[in-house]
Structures are given as structure tokens and as C-alpha cells.
Amino acid sequence: MPKRYLSIWLRYLTTDWLCLQKPELKLQPIVFAASVHNRKVVSSMNAIAEAGGVQINMPTADAMAIVPGLVVIDDKPERNLKLLKGIGEWCVRYAPIVSLDPPEGLILDISGCAHLWNGEQGYLKEVLNRLKSKGYYARAAIADTVGTSWAVSRYGKLRAIIGEGEQTEALLSLHPASLRIEPVVLQRLQKLGLNQVHSFISMPRSVLRRRFGDNLLLRLAQAVGQVEELIEPIQVQQPYMERLPCLDPIRTAVGIEIAMKLLLEKICNRLLQEGKGLRTAKLICYRVDGKVVEASIGTNAASNSIDHLFNLFQLKISSIAPALGIELFVLEASKVEELELPQEVLWKANEGLDDQKVTELLDRLTVKVGAKIVQRYLPDEHYWPERSTRQAISIHEQPKIDWQSTPRPTQLLSKPEPIQVSVPVPDYPPMLFRYKGITHNIRKADGPERIEREWWIEEGEHRDYYQVEDELGQRYWVFRSGHYRNDNSQQWFIHGYFA
Predict the structure, then answer these.
(1) Rounded Cα gap, residues 283 and 264, in angstroms
(2) Which residues of the chain does CATH 3.30.1490.100 include?
């Protein structure tokens, strides 16, 4: 079977991506700027900026001078490669072999694939339309060689599909830059007036080698098919998924348990070999009547223990209704993480959260009562009380900062609630406050502790916090918002309870 290659050129890759993130920039001229020798130059641009005269490697100061209202964004070296890899993994649906062609291209080995779309014309149309629907401008071409498909996708004007054995003819009218040669060699060709491939393709090889080097000959040979050009396919991570079809429909809980265990053995053995563990998994049951039943579990730490995961799924069996029977089981691990192997020691002290039994207990509680019931919080770098904590990703995540030494209430309200107070002097703590219809007479008070609002996040008044204790010994955290105002406006709030 003859080789066929598809070259895709995502001409405005980074700017198209930016417009998807910020649609309001779609009609504005945009460039990405990179630092080269201590100056900013254009690394990529959109069609509007290009139409205004902006070119690659042009100083951004010059670009801003010729295009009014130009939006300049700092470029990141890894952004292009990351975007290309993401689109390349998506393109695996069209060809099993996809290779990255930085900075803005992809090469697909489509040998034997085009017939699935009624030929190469339908195949090419499908790929381009799908990319366009996702917001990316793309040009593409199909040919026998990587070099010719690359050249036609970027410099071709007449046709995008080059027939078998027609690559030499397709190259003749193209610019020498279509051969992917170095800028120095390209300048030499232009100085000699060789502005199209047909101007020098028939010259003796010895003359071309002496004047322009071996690389020009290599690129020519690769483009016309005399030398094979190898491409390096991207490695797409296979999903952590296992299937178990059933010869006879499964109707009993015992049968469902057996299917669970077989699927867990397969997926956990793979995870064990890769040194990983799952955090979330879903069992999908396809019934004979066409309905689908699902059961999901989650763990507080990555795990590949078959017994532990099986015990979690056992708690879900009662929610799986087999009806007339289940004919297909699918187990999918949707979230997988690296697994840290526990270090063996001669004796063990109090391990706390590092104890495997504690983790497994929390997993069982989570499956029984819900994922949002069992939570762990870590300190966060914020002065504002509502933002001073964040939810931990896993049970083993370590805090990046220490907890504040300043006493804080055991229970913090998610949103401060208004209270009515009686204050003898404006800057003194309240003598009493009324909350939810109950009057609390203050016996002791400490404060104020002033906390300024984080102005870089939002605007607003500061808060003066007081720790107060009522006549029953109950302690509260209350605050006045802003400075004292003698206008009967609502300024006092309750924000938490001390133990």
C-alpha cells in the first residue's frame, strides 16, 4: 500500500487559542511577543495584524507603530508545543500515526485511512471543517511524501491533494522556502534569481551540493520520494479502561461482584506496573433493555489495592439494578495519580493521616455519605478570613504555609451575617448584640484586630474584629465593617463561633 501523508498548518495557532479564551479580542489585531537579545519581537500574530503589515520577528515597537490598537501578549516558549500536542492527540481519531511539526504544524500518516470518509477529498474536508468548528484556521495538503504535503499546505495555490507519483510536478512552481531549507541557503538562491523550485531542480547534483550544501539535496530527495523521511509519532496515553462482555446476562449481586473483581484485577495490575493509583473510578453497566446503570467511587489517596477498591464498590451494589440482565461491564479510572510507595520502618509511631487504615476508613465514609461530607482544609495565603483556607486535593497534600498563630474561630460562617449591637463608644466592643432574635449580653471582649481588604482582588471597607463572650460563656467572632458611622446603617456582623 503506497504511503500517503497529510500536513496540517495551523497558521494562527496561538492567536486562535487566545480568541477562544477571550472572545472579545476576536476582532482586534493581536501579536505574541518573545524576548530575543533583550528586545521584544513578534513571534506570532493573527490575520488582522498580518493584514496591517506585521511580520514575524518584527520588533513589537515597530508593529505597534504601524497597527493602531495592537494587542501585545507575552509569549511562553512551551505554549505552542503544548497546544500542538493537544490538537495532535485529538487528531488520532483520523490517523493512528500523528507527528508534531513545530511550531505550527502536524504530520499525519493517513495510509489506508481515507476510504473511511469516502476518499481523500471527503477526508480532507472533514478534518478542516472540524478544526474550523473548534475555532482554528488551518490549511492542509495530502501527498505521497511528507516534504510535498508540507510544501503544498503552506505555498500551494491550485490544489491540496497531490496524486500518487505527482509530487515533483507539484513542487515545480513553488517557492524554494517550501523545501524547508535554512534561511542562509534561501538567501543564496534568491540572490541568484532562483525563485521557484523548477529553476534549480534539474541542475547537476554536484553543482547544487557545492553551492548550497547537502541539506538542499536531502530536502529535495525527501520531497520527491527518493529518500524516505521518518516521522516520530506522539505517544497518546491509553485510557485506563477495561471491558467485560458477558455470554449470558448477569442478574444477581454475586455475578456483579465477580465482574467487578475481574475488572479491578486487570486495571490495578496495569496501575501497579506503572507505579500509579486511581483516585476516581466508574463502573458502567449496559443492560439488555438498552439502559445504562453507573456506580462511582472516589479515594482520598491514590490506590491500586484490589481488595480496598472492591470493598468500596461493594457498598454500591445495592444501587445497581440489573433488571433483565447486564450484558457488558466497563470499568473506567477517570482520575489517576502517581503512587508514593510507603517506606517500611522497624517500628511505627503515631502515623496520623499517613496511616493506610485511616485513608481506607475515610474512603468508605466518602462512598457511604458522599464526597462533599468528608473534607480536609489547608491554609492559604490570604488575609481575608473567607479566603484563608482551601480544600486539600488529597489526604497526603502538605500545606505550603503554616497556619496563622492568631486565634481563629472553630466554626467560620461561609458568609458574615448582620447583627444589631449596642456600643457605648464608637471604637469600643459592643455591650450586647442581637442575633436571630436572641440578645447576648457581653461579659468579656478582646480587640479590635483590624484586617484590611485585599484591594488587588476587590474593593471595600476594612474590618475591625472582636472576640466576645456572653454571660453564658459562649464566645463569638464579630466585626464592624469600616469606620464608625452615625447613620444607623448596618455595620456589625457575626463571622464565627469559638469552641
Answers:
(1) 10
(2) 245-354
Q: E strands along 37-84, which residues?
A: 39-45, 71-74
Contact residues for 169 (Cβ-Cβ < 8 A; gap 6+) = none
Q: Is the CB of residue 412 less than 8 Å from the CB of residue 495? A: yes
119 contact partners, CB below 8 Å, separation of at least 6: none
How many C-beta atoms surround the C-beta of residue 410 within 10 A? 11
pTM of the predicted model as reported, rounded to 2 decimal places: 0.58
Q: What residues in the chain have per-residue pLDDT under 50?
A: 344-347
Which position has the grid cell 445504562? 292
CB 63 within 8 A of CB 48: no
> CATH number of the domain at 1-236, please?
3.30.70.270
- Per the CATH hierarchy, to which homologous superfamily does domain 245-354 belong? DNA polymerase, Y-family, little finger domain (3.30.1490.100)
pLDDT tens for each residue of 313-330: 888 888 888 988 999 999
Query: Would you state the cell numbers that stand for residue 447, as one nine-digit string?
Result: 480587640
Round to whole Å and give the CA distance between 48 and 75: 18
Length of the chain: 499
What's the rounded Cα separation, in Å, for the pair 349 and 436? Answer: 47
Q: β-strands 30-36, 71-74: how paired?
A: parallel
Where are any strands of DSSP class E within 5-128? 5-9, 30-36, 39-45, 71-74, 97-101, 105-109
Distances (CA, A) of 461 to 32, 110, 416, 421: 39, 63, 14, 19
Task: Please list the alpha-helical segments (H only) found in 305-435.
Answer: 306-314, 356-369
pLDDT in tens, 56-94: 999 999 999 999 999 999 998 788 899 999 999 999 989
| Residue ranges matching CATH 3.30.70.270 in the chain | 1-236
The 8 Å CB, 24+ separation contacts for 342-351 are none
Look at residues 102, 94, 148 and name the one whose alpha carbon lies nearest to residue 124. 94
